[in-house]
Specification:
By secondary structure, this protein is an alpha/beta fold. It has helices at residues 14-36, 48-56, 91-98, 125-140, 199-204, 218-226, 234-242, 252-255, and strands at 7-11, 39-43, 73-77, 79-81, 111-112, 153-156, 181-184, 194-197, 208-212, 246-251.
Length: 266
């Protein structure tokens, strides 16, 4: 969005990041429940599920505002690897083990929308992407009645090359404007076959958050925020298109080299 900028939050350590991420996610949950009675979100893999679990499995302060209502969550995947759901590379398996399996029963169970396990064996990313798009349509209305699905929240990570979801620098999928989900057969990092939400879907969400922690993220965050070249990387494009809907949750180790203005609290 022209004239608007993302918010870059930097906290002392990962525990502080998780604490603030909890507040942010639950604020988005509560707003969504008031709007339409459910919370539609998408998540990525990588280190994000671990931080998200640390955030959401922390003890509640006892107020309704600080309580995850998982039974009202519709969880999708911002990207997924074309592997069986129990494979070590599966984003679903990762968040299931980190978060879903550990949710106390009294908080309910989210509805989780996985890739179609019956079509993984053939390994065609385009077919799986089309099927996942149909899954989105069942929740967000038919594609011919809405141009893009509107997620309440999308949670993302960023790689050392600036990729996010499975949108990689220089890949033609970055220029896709019509499909909601696309397949990838040549990911530069394994596994090569994946599906991913497209840039218009990501940037159309009501709220978008990146979680990036540790010194290993220092160089890419400086590129994304402080260089012209970084604005054209996938993570930079989300910043550009999402504008002030985008929030970055980072620690000081990841942002120590970044000149872009940082915020210390939500």
């Amino acid at each position: 969005m022209a004239g608007t900028s993302p918010s870059l939050y930097s906290f002392p350590d990962v525990d502080a990041v998780a604490k603030q991420l909890r507040k942010y996610v639950l604020d988005n949950q509560n707003s969504a429940l008031k709007r339409h009675g459910c919370f539609r979100m998408a998540v990525s893999g990588g280190s994000l599920p671990n931080t998200l679990a640390k955030a959401l499995l922390a003890p509640s302060n006892g107020t309704p505002e600080d309580t995850p209502q998982f039974s009202k969550w519709d969880v999708f995947f911002a990207d997924e690897r074309v592997v069986p759901l129990d494979h070590p590379d599966s984003n679903y398996r990762l968040i299931k083990e980190e978060l879903f399996d550990k949710i106390p029963k009294e908080l309910g169970t989210p509805t989780v929308h996985t890739i179609d396990p019956n079509h993984v064996k053939g390994g065609d990313p385009t077919e799986l992407a089309d099927l996942y798009q149909e899954e989105l349509m069942r929740t967000f209305a038919a594609k011919d009645s809405v141009r893009l699905p509107v997620f309440d929240l999308i949670l993302l990570g960023t790689g050392p090359d600036g990729h996010t979801c499975s949108l990689f620098p220089g890949h033609p999928q970055l220029r896709e404007n019509d499909a909601w989900v696309v397949g990838i057969s040549d990911s530069p990092k394994p596994p090569p076959k994946r599906i991913t939400l497209t840039l218009p879907v990501v940037s159309h969400a009501l709220s978008i958050a990146f979680v990036a922690t540790g010194g290993g993220k220092k160089d890419i965050l400086k590129r994304v925020f402080d260089t012209e070249e970084g604005h054209s990387l996938p993570s930079g494009l989300v910043n550009t298109h999402g504008g002030d809907k985008v929030s970055w949750f980072t620690d000081h180790a990841a942002t120590e080299a970044v000149s872009f203005p940082k915020r210390a609290s939500l």
